[in-house]
Amino acid sequence: MPVKNPSLKSAASSTVEDYLERILELINSKGYARVVDIASALKISQASVTNMIQRLDTEGLLNYEKYRGLVLTTAGEKLARSIAHRHQLLTDFLKLFGIDDDVIYHDVEGMEHHISPPTLRAIEALTAQLRRRPALLAKLKLAGT
Amino acid sequence: MPVKNPSLKSAASSTVEDYLERILELINSKGYARVVDIASALKISQASVTNMIQRLDTEGLLNYEKYRGLVLTTAGEKLARSIAHRHQLLTDFLKLFGIDDDVIYHDVEGMEHHISPPTLRAIEALTAQLRRRPALLAKLKLAGT
DNA sequence: TAAATAAGTTAGTTTTAACTAACTTTTGCA
DNA sequence: TGCAAAAGTTAGTTAAAACTAACTTATTTA
Ligand SMILES: [Mn+2]
Ligand SMILES: [Mn+2]
Ligand SMILES: [Mn+2]
Ligand SMILES: [Mn+2]
Fold it and tell me: Whole-prediction pTM value?
């Protein structure tokens, strides 16, 4: 079921979003993103990664030099950052409830691609409010046992 | 990106979940689910629906008699109900924030397939608590302008 | 610095879930 | 009752995104 995702300006597919997210993460943590590391982070083959990188280059989200390496373009970095930010907000929200980190990661990794800006803003504001209400959160955690 | 969804006993794909959800909805509203109505609800071709119905029959989620009609099996109905319930809980949650109905529907339709039971329980409990705190909700709605 | 290993690429294949076109069955109505 | 329209089915095609196998380029190390 190809559900269109209008949540970000340049409507990228879930797949593209996950690649960009991983690439930015690798650049932030080690300074560069190699094919082999992207592949291992996404648990897919290097061949698939090469293929996608070439596509992202074509789409202007990164510049790629064969066999050498890649850098995100301004557009690519901006998009990657918004994807990472959305992931973080959703994670922060779910962390309020004492859900297992693995479960949170799994759920966020799937749902993030389907959250529109209005919904994300609501969740962000809600998270901020809930953080100021430990009593309410305590009640919720009890309910979850 | 084939993200496995362990959120329901018999791990059905997002696609299967959407079909079952539509089928149950049609049965609830008009008493039966025809190929042509499932197709129009999901905005896909009748041929695709026929194909999926045959698959769901094979998988034991419904009984299908060619050219005649279908009924959900006990397993199929149980699964469909849990899918519908999850959809409802997520909708109830997002309705708290004054998000447009269209946006809510779109987001829920996508994210529902990636919400694990613990996350769903947390959201359910949170919704119940927030309903008792109109002041907090009012504050959130202001933030969203 | 040459051989071995690691990394990256290409070509072709697979899977899933759509699609269209042509056909069959059922239903509704003159 | 029979025929046209609606509904449903089949067969073959397409597209996205994965895969494997074989190949090329780069890096490491003896
Ligand atoms: Mn993510
Ligand atoms: Mn993701
Ligand atoms: Mn739904
Ligand atoms: Mn859905």
Answer: 0.89
Question: How far is A132 from A128, CA to CA, in rounded Å?
Answer: 7
- Average pLDDT of the segment spanning B11-21: 94
Structural domain containing residue A107: 84-143
pLDDT at residue number B61: 96
Q: What would the two tokens of residue B113 be?
A: 């397939």
> How far is residue B119's CA from residue B116's CA, in Å, rounded to a whole number?
5
Interface of B with A in 79-118 (CB under 8 A): 94, 97, 99-100, 103-104, 106-107, 109-111, 113-116, 118
Q: B94: which residues sit within 8 A by CB, 6+ positions away?
A: A119, A122, B104, B107, B108
**A56 found inside a domain:** yes
| A69 and A103 inside one domain | no
Q: In chain B, which ranges are continuous DSSP H helix?
A: 14-30, 35-42, 46-58, 74-95, 101-111, 117-131, 134-143
Task: Tell me how many domains chain B contains.
Answer: 2
Closest CA to A132 of B144, B135, B125, B128: B135
Size of interface A-B (CB pairs under 8 A): 98
The pLDDT of residue B32 is 95
Last residue of a domain, one of B79, B94, B129: B79
- What's the CA–C1' distance between A9 and C16, in Å? 28
